[in-house]
Each structure stands twice: as structure tokens, then as C-alpha cells.
Write a structure and sequence with these properties.
With 510 residues, this protein is mainly alpha-helical. The protein is built from 21 helices and no strands. It has 2 domains: 212 residues, no CATH class; 216 residues, no CATH class. α13 runs parallel beside α19 and α17 packs antiparallel against α18.
């Protein structure tokens, strides 16, 4: 896949993911307006994090172990039988895991929120038992996405969040006041199932579910199992960083977990759109290039992908830090979510936003290692960053409260990204680090000037209704983007020139 094709495909996925995230923010805004910040929302967010974190760990591990191997067979006669075996095997494992998690939910929640007691702890167990079976559907949804990505279908996997968000929004608005927080819990469980069910027809069209038999003894099954274990451990360790904030947050003042959760939803938006879009397109490309031993093209893809990540994420990181308060105010501040909640959530968002750039780079480097069938190195770095995150949280939570937990997460990511860059160089040899550093400093300079320009507009973003706030913030963001890209053009950032050449080519054709 060429650089132009990569950008084009990533652009399509980005649009779909952006629309999906808009619905996601509508969901979070509905939850914030109905329930605000309280010990009830703290409890819900803590309980809901368990299936979500396990899903992300399984999803990353499944796709990473499945895509490189299945990609070698998907267009062959045994491809469907192989995929069917994986679906049945994974389904059985996830079903057993879900049952065990429900049985041992009291122990699980004691580990997740050790600071909870009494009614709040008992409620967290009840909520967890309702939502934990969703792990089965979420895991199978991740496998469906992997199959469809191999088949070059990036659209359906990008739409999975739509029904999930719609169910939660409708339930909160129509039943939230009457049935309280439990209405949200049951809606969340239903949304988990829908993420799998919406993809089933698309996967079925490829004939996977109608294969004559499951290829249980296919050599690829063993290869997947060898890859899966370290990737699963590494992915679970990465997701533990999110859980770490909740564990420490359970010892802080009431509402701390809610502030962290609302801030994390905003922080995850760029990763959920731009980073995911890039990785969705780049990863299969890297797998194919390495399989063909086209190392020059493989290294160029790694370099180009890292440069694109820096080009896009650096200004977003700076902009989100500067505009944290108006962003939170626009999304959440209404009804039960007041101005004080906005201030406290923005405080956490500033520290979380600092980790946007290294988070995206680490995810790309992870995929680069996985493409080379090296699943142990990312696992080691996952352990390292998680352990460092725990230490930093412990050191920073006292002086900075819940803001220290967000800062600890971000700082650990910087150490991880730098370490992985060095390790990747040792693994595949030179892959254009000097070019990446050139993009880094140029994007940094352009982003800082953009941030300074945007900061002058902050006084004009206060007051007004939702539409007026959205219009003002949108104008400021567009002006900031204009400043950034003009400076990036002047500084001759290579990745921007590539994107502009593609755009000009399409305009000329049109």
C-alpha cells in the first residue's frame, strides 16, 4: 500500500470514526447531564471499566495474533475453516472467562476499588455481574473486526459503536430518571452485545460460518497460540494503566473517579479516531511487507506512519491542553454537571492530554514489532510502563490529587515510547529516526506557536448557549489548525507535503 493509498484509506476510516465518536460524546453528555458526578457515577465507571479493559486487552491481542497469521491463508481454501476454528475456540474461552468473572465478582471489585466499602462496594459488585458477560460479545466483536480488516473492509468495524451509543443515549434520556443508575448499567450490557451482532452479517458474507468444518489441527492455530499469550499479557498490562488510576482514585475524595473518567473520554477521542484510523490501515500493510521480506518498504512505512502520527497528534495534544476548560464545558456542563465539575474535569484533562503523542507512537511501534512476529518486546515495555505508572501515581497523587494520577499515566508513556524507539532500531535496523526527529521538532515548534495563538482567544469562549459555544470553539480550533498547518508548510514537514500532494491530485481529478 502506497503512502497516498494509506492516507486515503485512513481518511475514510477517520470520517466514520469521527462520526462514531460524536455519538460517543453525545452518550457521555447524556450520562453527565442525568447523573452528574457522585459516588453512584464513581461506582458505575469503576464497574464498567472491567469488561471494557478486558475487551481492549483481548481485542488487541486477538487482532495482533490473528491478523498476521490469518492474512497468509484468508484467500486460500482452508481460510474459512481456520477462521471458524478461531471463532469457536475464542468463544468458548470467553464464555468460560465471563462465567468465572461473574462468580468471583466480589473479589474482582475488591481488587479494582479497594477503597470502597459498605453499600458502594456491594453496588459495584451488582453492577459488575450485570456487565461482565459482555466480555464474550466484545471479544468476538474484536475478532470480527480483524477478519473484516484482512478482507479490506474497514467500514463495518468503524460502525460498531453506533448502536451501542444509541441504546445508551435512549435509555438514559427516557428511563434514566425513573430507574436511576441501574438503567445505565443494563443499557451498557445491551450495547456490548450489539457491537458483535452488527458485524455478524458482514463476516457471514465471506462464508466463514458456513465452512464445512473447523480446522482445529491447522498449523496456523499453533502459531496464533504462540503469538497470543505474550500479546495478551502485554495488552492486559497496558490496559492496567487505566485500571491503576481507578485503584488509586478509590482512595481519593468522592467524585475523583468520575472526573478522571469524563476527562479520559475526551482524551481518548484523538486516539479513537486518528490513531485507530492510521493503525487500521498501516498495520495490515506492515504485516504484508514483512511477510514478503520487503524490508526497505517496511521501514519506510514505519517511518512514514510515525511521522504522520507526530504531525497529527502534536498539535492536538497542545490544543487540548490549552482549550481543556471550554471543551469540557461544551460537552458536559448542563443539568447535573455544574461549573465546578467542569473545572475539576478540565484539571484532569490537561494532564491526560500530555500523553497523547507518546501514546500514539507507542501503539504504532507495538504494531511494528507484532508485524515482525516479535510479541515479547512490546510485552516487556508494557510491564515497564505499567510499573512506572504505579510508582508515579503513588508519588504524584498526594501533591496533585487525581491530577497526579493522570500525569503519572502520561509521563510513563514518554519513557515507554523512547525505549521502544531504541528497541525497534535494534530489531529492524535504521528506519529513518533522523527524519522522524526532524518532523518532531518542526511539529513541536508549529504546535507551540499555535497554542500561544489559541490562548489569546480563551476569554471569548466564555458564556452563551450550546450552539454559540460550539461555533466559537469551532472557529478557534479552525484558526489554530490554520496557524499550525501554515507553519508546518513553511517548515517543510515531509508528511504534510505527502498529504497535500494527495489532496491536490484528487482536486485535479475532480
Amino acid at each position: 500500500m502506497t503512502g497516498r493509498t494509506m492516507i486515503k484509506s485512513a481518511g475514510i476510516v477517520t470520517v466514520l470514526l469521527f462520526l462514531s465518536r460524536l455519538f460517543g460524546f453525545a452518550r457521555e453528555a447524556a450520562i453527565a447531564a442525568c447523573y452528574g458526578t457522585s459516588w453512584l457515577t464513581d461506582t458505575y465507571f469503576a464497574a464498567a471499566s472491567i469488561p471494557s479493559i478486558l475487551f481492549l486487552a483481548f481485542n488487541d491481542a486477538i487482532k495482533t495474533a490473528f491478523i498476521p497469521v490469518y492474512g497468509d491463508y484468508h484467500d486460500k481454501e482452508e481460510g474459512n475453516s481456520l477462521a471458524l476454528a478461531v471463532f469457536l475456540g475464542l468463544g468458548g474461552i470467553l464464555l468460560l472467562a465471563s462465567i468465572l468473572l461473574v462468580i468471583f465478582a466480589p473479589l474482582v471489585m475488591r481488587l479494582v476499588v479497594p477503597g470502597y466499602s459498605g453499600v458502594q462496594y456491594e453496588l459495584s459488585v451488582t453492577m459488575a455481574r450485570i456487565m461482565l458477560p459482555g466480555l464474550l460479545f466484545l471479544g468476538l466483536a474484536g475478532l470480527c473486526s480483524g477478519v473484516l480488516n484482512i478482507k479490506k473492509n474497514f467500514v463495518i468495524p468503524s460502525l460498531t459503536a453506533f448502536p451501542n451509543n444509541l441504546v445508551i443515549i435512549a435509555t438514559v434520556l427516557l428511563l434514566g430518571k425513573r430507574f436511576g443508575i441501574m438503567a445505565l448499567v443494563w443499557a451498557t450490557a445491551a450495547g456490548f452485545a450489539l457491537q458483535f451482532l452488527i458485524q455478524v452479517p458482514a463476516v457471514a458474507r465471506h462464508g466463514i460460518f458456513t465452512a464445512r468444518k473447523a480446522a482445529w489441527r491447522h498449523p496456523a492455530i499453533k502459531r496464533m497460540a504462540v503469538l497470543l499469550v505474550p500479546v495478551l499479557i502485554g495488552s492486559a498490562t497496558v490496559e492496567l494503566k487505566t485500571l491503576t488510576d481507578k485503584i488509586f482514585g478509590s482512595f481519593l475524595a468522592e467524585q475523583s473517579i468520575s472526573y478522571l473518567n469524563y476527562a479520559a473520554k475526551i482524551y481518548s477521542l484523538p486516539g479513537g479516531i486518528l490513531v485507530l484510523a492510521l493503525l487500521t490501515v498501516i498495520y495490515p500493510t506492515m504485516v504484508e511487507l514483512y511477510y514478503r521480506r520487503e524490508m526497505k518498504e517496511f521501514k519506510e512505512t514505519v517511518c512514514q506512519g510515525t511521522g504522520l502520527m507526530i504531525l497529527l497528534m502534536f498539535p492536538i495534544m497542545v490544543g487540548m491542553m490549552v482549550l481543556s476548560t471550554p471543551i469540557v464545558r461544551l460537552i458536559y456542563e448542563r443539568a447535573a454537571f455544574d461549573a465546578q465539575a467542569t473545572h475539576n474535569t478540565a484539571y484532569a484533562l490537561i494532564f491526560y492530554s500530555l500523553g497523547l503523542l507518546p501514546s500514539g507512537v507507542m501503539l504504532l511501534f507495538n504494531r511494528a514489532f507484532y508485524s515482525t512476529k516479535d510479541t515479547k518486546t512490546p510485552m516487556y515495555f508494557s510491564f515497564f510502563t505499567t510499573l512506572l505508572n504505579v510508582v508515579l501515581n503513588w508519588l504524584l497523587m498526594k501533591p496533585l490529587a487525581y491530577g497526579g494520577l493522570a500525569l503519572g499515566t502520561s509521563l510513563s508513556l514518554y519513557f515507554g515510547a523512547i525505549g521502544m524507539a531504541v528497541a525497534l532500531h535494534r530489531r529492524i535496523g535504521p528506519y529513518g529516526v533522523s527524519q522522524i526527529l526532524d518532523t518532531l521538532w518542526k511539529a513541536g515548534v508549529a504546535s507551540l506557536f499555535m497554542g500561544a495563538a489559541v490562548r489569546f482567544a480563551l476569554p471569548y469562549l466564555e458564556g452563551g448557549g450550546f450552539l454559540l459555544q460550539a461555533a466559537r470553539l469551532g472557529i478557534v480550533i479552525m484558526m489554530g489548525a490554520l496557524v499550525y498547518f501554515v507553519l508546518a508548510y513553511i517548515l517543510k514537514i515531509r508528511e504534510l507535503e505527502l498529504a497535500l500532494s494527495l489532496l491536490w491530485r484528487r482536486i485535479s481529478r475532480g
